Amino acid sequence: MKYKPLPVGVENFEKLITRGYYFIDKTWFIKDLLDKKGDVNLFTRPRRFGKTLSLSMLRYFFEDERERDGSRKDNRAIFNGLSIMEAGEKYLSYMGKYPVISVTLKEASQPDFELSCDLLAIQISSEYERHSYVYKSGCLDPHEKEKYLRIMEERGSRGDYRDSLRFLSSCLRKYYGRKAILLIDEYDVPLENAFFSGFYEEMVGFLRGFFGAALKTNDSLEFAVITGCLRISKESIFTGLNNLEIESILSKNYDEYFGFTDEEVQRMCRDYDLGHKYELIKEWYNGYIFGNANVYNPWSLIRFIKDLLADENEFPKCHWANTSSNSIVRSLIERADDETKGEIEALIEGKTIEKPIHEDVTYGEMYDSMDNLWNFMFFTGYFRKVRQWMNPKTKQQYAELTIPNEEIKYIFRTKILTWFDEKIRERDLTDLYAAILGLDAETFEEELSDLLQETISFNDAQESFYHGFMAGVLSKLKGYVTRSNREGGRGRSDLILRPVTRRKPAFVLEFKIARKFSELEAKAGEALQQIEEKQYEQELNNDGYAVVHKYGIAFFGKDCLIRLG
How is 278-332 classified by DSSP, letter by letter? Predict the structure, then answer.
């Protein structure tokens, strides 16, 4: 094989290295972590920015890993040739010296509280099983052995699992004579899921005790690294945890370790002979600012490079949209007032908006204000920070935000526009339909203008936007079938409304875009003239429809003008 295989979805560090996948070396992260000596380190980044792989890397570096029989497993060779091996003995002395507890909470995303706790118990049980040599070693007293076995066999009480991470680290300390390192991935997934599924307070109560026992009252903890998508306020689940170091996307520390830097992407393009695709890759997947670092979305980048290796003419795709929860974004749409819609339109046009920044809101506060929703979107990866400042009087932080790249703009243009269209289609369109069929162009224009005020438009909107919008609006007109861009006469009309029975009249609709408001009248007339000149009604006449009416419709932003032919 000419090129190294690309690690699409590979989140296990050992597998990535031993199977020869392409790897961008981020092992200097280990040195920084040791230098900064944080007791409990919380890293928040958007989904699919390498957090799980980073925790896996930490486990393989620090862990004194044992087989089920207690024999030592040496992972040192995994790091041969990587940058951390050049850091010096001061850092390498930590390699393979600690017991490590590694759990992910992403499986606790379930439809109810009981099932979420059951899945969490399975995850905890699996980690107990991974360390079963401790249970077999004889270092635990009878009471501890009985509790260990209950948890390992998934027979534990709610209290057992609430205390499970603290208890396991205590057992590991007895076995190793060393404190344990705790790695927790996707810590906020159960909270996000519980919020949208209706059992948020129950989950907050459980996790407050779960994290509190493991992180606050744990004498057997060396240090902890926690990852998630959002920073949750300390008052929510980290109550009283004074040794928590929070490293969000605004933090200058560790800013280059999640996501790929421009230099790394250029090297990757050279390694795969895709240097000529660099600008396209940059346009689609670059643009995130974490601290002072400009980074690319690694998930989407790797997927696109894999597509290009199969076909160099492949177009970029939006790979990230389906990996992150859309619930928060949809919430913004459902609550959008005229001001919010205007801000969304500005973002789609490439402009910026200014918003106060709140890093520690809770899910329970999400709907308290539109600013909270904007913040959730910012911290989950939908916006790039252009600049940041503080109001000297109020001490409130502010940020100027924009859409980072074409991938996210695609999400806005498709998902968000679609959701607005769905809202519009839920409206009673009886008056609009009656105006169309009754040849009342004035009322048709008024009703359509009202609908346009409720949707999202943008200055660079093409005719295809209005075409899709109108097709959706007219799709529920009973007794009529909407046909788009049908062959007729000497060209294609934009829309045809064909009645089920030929006793009723059919309709041809043609659209034009005005570049100025003053052009609306002329453009509507131009649309009607095009219908006549290209004989768009001919197909309908040939099919037995004796009466065909024609509408010329001109659009300018959220304004329209309609003329009946």
Answer: HHHHHHHH--EEETTEEEE-HHHHHHHHHHHHH-TTPPP---SGGGS--HHHHHH
Nearest partner of 388 among 346, 347, 344, 354, judged by Cα: 354
In this prediction, the residues of the chain whose per-residue pLDDT falls under 70 are 1, 233-235, 322-328, 417, 420-421, 457-463, 485-492
Give the CA dihedral 484, 489, 491, 496, nearest 10 degrees. -20
Please say whether the beta carbons of 57 and 26 come within 8 A: yes
Cα–Cα distance for residue pair 400/382, rounded to 1 Å: 13
How many structural domains comprise the chain?
Answer: 4
pLDDT at 539: 86
Across-strand partners of 548? 506
17 in a structural domain: no
Kind and range of the H or E element at 355? strand 353-356
**What pLDDT does residue 334 have?**
74
CB atoms under 10 Å from CB of 312, counted, come to 11
In which domain, by residue range, is 45 found?
25-64+91-247
Q: Residue 299: inside a domain, yes or no?
A: yes
**What tokens appear for 309 in the block?**
């290796």
CATH code for the domain in which residue 461 is found: 3.90.1570
Are residue 236 and residue 193 in the same domain, yes or no? yes
Using CA atoms, how far apart are residues 360 and 362, in angstroms rounded to an integer?
6
AA identity, residue 387: R
In eight-state DSSP terms, residue 252 is S
Which parts of 482-558 fold into alpha helices (H)? Answer: 520-533, 538-542
241 in a structural domain: yes
Q: Is there a single domain that holds both residue 206 and residue 127?
A: yes
- How far apart CA 155 and CA 345 sit, in angstroms, is 54
pTM: 0.86
Q: Contact 375/250 with Cβ under 8 angstroms?
A: no
Say whether both 57 and 192 belong to one domain. Answer: yes
Q: Looking at residue 415, what DSSP letter applies? A: I
Q: What is the pLDDT of residue 235?
A: 58
Question: Are residues 241 and 273 part of one domain?
Answer: no
Describe the strand order of the beta sheet including 40-44 as a list of residue ranges.
100-104, 180-185, 221-228, 40-44, 244-247
Question: d(Cα 542, Cα 547) in Å, to the nearest integer?
Answer: 11
Could you tell me if 470 and 548 lie in one domain?
yes
Region label for 17, one of left (φ > 0), alpha (ψ between -120 and 50) or beta (otherwise) = alpha
Pairing relationship of beta strands 487-488 and 491-492 according to DSSP bridges: antiparallel
Burial annotation 360-399 (CB, 10 A radius, 16+ → b, else e): bbbbeebeeebebbbbbbbbbbbbbbeeeeeeeeeeeeeb
Q: What is the pLDDT of residue 1?
A: 57
How far apart are alpha carbons 295 and 256 in whole angstroms? 7
Per-residue pLDDT at 240? 77
Residue 438: other Cβ atoms inside 10 A: 10
Residues 6+ apart with CB under 8 A from 287: 294, 296, 384, 404, 405
**For residue 480, what are its two tokens?**
């009529």
User: In sequence order, what are the beta bridge partners of 397?
Assistant: 390
CA distance 468 to 462: 10
